[in-house]
Known about the structure:
Belongs to the trans-sulfuration enzymes family. The protein has 15 helices and twelve strands. The protein has a seven-stranded mixed β-sheet, with helices on both faces. A five-stranded mixed β-sheet has the order 8-9-12-11-10, covered by helices on one side. The protein has two domains: 5-254, Type I PLP-dependent aspartate aminotransferase-like (Major domain) (Aspartate Aminotransferase, domain 2); 259-395, Aspartate Aminotransferase, domain 1. It is an alpha/beta fold.
Amino acid sequence: MAFKPANNIQDLQYFGEFGGVNPSISDSSTYTFLSAKTMFDTFEGNADGCYLYSRHSTPSNLYLGEALAAMEGTETANVTASGMGAITPVILQLCGSGDHVVSSRTIYGGTYAFLKNFTPRLGIKTTFVDITKLDTVEAAITPNTKILYCESVSNPLLEVADISGLAKLAKKHNLKLVVDNTFSPLSISPKTLGADIIIHSLTKFINGSSDTVAGVICGTQEFINDLRNVNDGACMLLGSTMDSLRAASVLKNLRTLHIRMQQHSKNGLFLAQKFEADGLKTVYPGLPSHPSHELFKSMMNPQYGFGGMLTIDVGSLEKANELMELMQKKNLGYLAVSLGFYKTLFSAPGSSTSSEIPEEEQKEMGLSDGLIRFSIGLDADIERTYQMMKACMQELNIL
């Protein structure tokens, strides 16, 4: 039977301690024991079902982790206080001084800054490559390489990673393939394509209401146990622990993700087709003009579409800023970073979410000043939205 991630979420059954249809929230930072020996055993990791301290784990966090592991098809998952709180411990758990990472060159600016500027202090080096060229990726691998790192759909250029091809390279060279799947939850299932570890910023589509910062690491039980180890686990010792109240909130929103992703994708495809027909330089994986359109089609779970992210290039930062300000004035969305909200969000990545990447490297990867990144919202009347956006562009002589 085909892997069906939404079914895996729906099939989970939780009851609250008083019979509630939602699991009860564990609003405690520490937990009591009936015997001192059980406390000792829990510290040693030998007491299943016992909780010690909320930085280790809580029932609420484990419920959410279980649901996200079910969605991604991994053995288990560990939730964190932010997307970066998921990315950084994975890299630090897998790499030490002298080790090497091969990463996509087009990734979220915070991840880029961590790999480019921070990890070298710890003796960890990174080579950034065009992830769409497997021969270039393989040429960058050294005897010290431990990780291949990519985003399923890259931020902000929307390049698509050949996860199956990368997984074969990782296996051949005994590496871990780490995939950030934030832009394409449900649409792409990296584990089924051979990825070892899947990361999300839950802040974005999965939570969907722009009220929470959170992350998750999905992987094997052995790897998640390593991350939680009290002696040398990166999640445990770096302390990016998710709050139980937030975990309960994200879990409730996760249950509607399949409906929301279908609408984000439907609206994204509609606008991308219209913008391209109008002559705008438009990038969207659902367009046949996208260089990796067929690759995305070969990997995707079709019912969830090509996602809610698209870009247009209006030629200059000045024009981009004018258009975004006018669209916000006309209530077509918000000039804001992040993504996955019910309203459309737009930003110029070169001066915001990718500003950590030096200008010359932005140019080299094709990130232009006039690029606008759209996170398309859940608009019920997307034809009306398009007509109003088109009017804004005509007013500014972009069209």
